Amino acid sequence: MRTAVLVEPTEFELEDRPRPSPGPDDVLVAVRDVGICGSDVHYYEHGRIGDYVVEDPLVLGHESAGEVVEVGENVTDHEPGDRVALEPGVPCRRCAHCKRGDYHLCESVRFMATPPHDGAFTEYVSWPADFAYTLPESVSTAEGALCEPLSVGIHACRRGSVGTGDTVLITGAGPIGLMVLEAARAAGATDVILTDVVDEKLAFAEKRGADLAVNVAETDLDAAVAEYTDGVGADVVVEASGAEPSIKSTIDVVRRGGTVVLVGLASEAEVPIDVLELIDNEVDVHGSFRYKNTYDAAVDLLADGEADVEGIIDFQSELEDIDAAFRRAMEPTVVKGMISLDS
Ligand SMILES: NC(=O)c1ccc[n+]([C@@H]2O[C@H](COP(=O)([O-])OP(=O)(O)OC[C@H]3O[C@@H](n4cnc5c(N)ncnc54)[C@H](O)[C@@H]3O)[C@@H](O)[C@H]2O)c1
Ligand SMILES: C[C@@H](O)[C@H](N)C(=O)O
After folding, report:
1. Which atom of ligand 1 is nearest to the CA of 38?
2. From the record, what ranges are coiled-coil (predicted)?
3. What is the ipTM of this complex?
4. Is any ligand 1 atom within 6 A of the Cβ of residue 249?
5. In CATH, what number is assigned to the domain containing residue 263?
6. Range of the domain at 103
């Protein structure tokens, strides 16, 4: 099977690898669509993300969906022909975190495209059947693949307890910020403010339904939020840029008693925050790491037309063109590139 392998930074090789056989509890999936995530691009450019270092050739891609072509002997809830979205992180199922239900916090998680685990830029993936979610007719495999970033958005909104009538401020209008926008709307947020430093990203966010889009490189965010919220502040602020000034700004624009959810990964682990302001304003700050139990919700939102993910796709390329696709994905105005296979 054709497989795109990152052999060193900025270099893919197309290899012919043996097709895997599904284990007893697995499904073998013919991959159809795989999104290019910022983390894929980071591994492509730098060969590492923090402590995760690409030491051996690695298959990238963790936003994937495809068609079941074979099932293991114990699998009763999937059959060949099912179209499925693959949840990319498979936990150990035995540790304390798994047993208390926080399977996304499992320290032995096998997460696609995170060294040393291979991802989905390949023709076939064998994957645990219970981490494969059937897509209804109305949901395409491209949408199925984007259940992954949508899941990040759903989890962030759950962490922030976004509810009906809330004003949600999202910093960063990349794919994650835009998926938080979808999830926040679905959770009942009536006012959503997006920030960015790139005008094209903000114009796109407005087209996708942001009520206010603020370029923080040009406009004073505190003043803009104060004006929009009659001086109260946002109920929930979801940080989805990873930019240090943006992380710092979250506590200035959240309302007293509001919630800040940190999703964006800062390049420096330590970001100075005014803790007295946090205490005085009784602000809840939550980290948000990947997601748990979000795929069913993501598929339902797409099937019901309550979330749109297809609209963020800028281009779809073939596996053979993965190098050019990654270079294109790095352009500052591109939101989402996909690799699509038709094997
Ligand atoms: N916590 C998690 O589980 C999780 C999961 C996925 C992604 N992430 C992180 O979330 C962040 C967003 O992911 P993405 O794929 O959308 O990234 P991205 O780089 O495509 O988007 C980030 C956006 O933030 C904008 N930005 C830069 N500086 C800004 C500032 N000061 N204020 C506002 N916006 C600013 C950029 O112009 C860009 O549009 C990244 O840091 C990524 O690593 C975290
Ligand atoms: C969650 C996922 O999208 C992210 N890129 C990660 O590897 O954690």
Report:
1. 15
2. none
3. 0.98
4. no
5. 3.40.50.720
6. 2-146+309-340
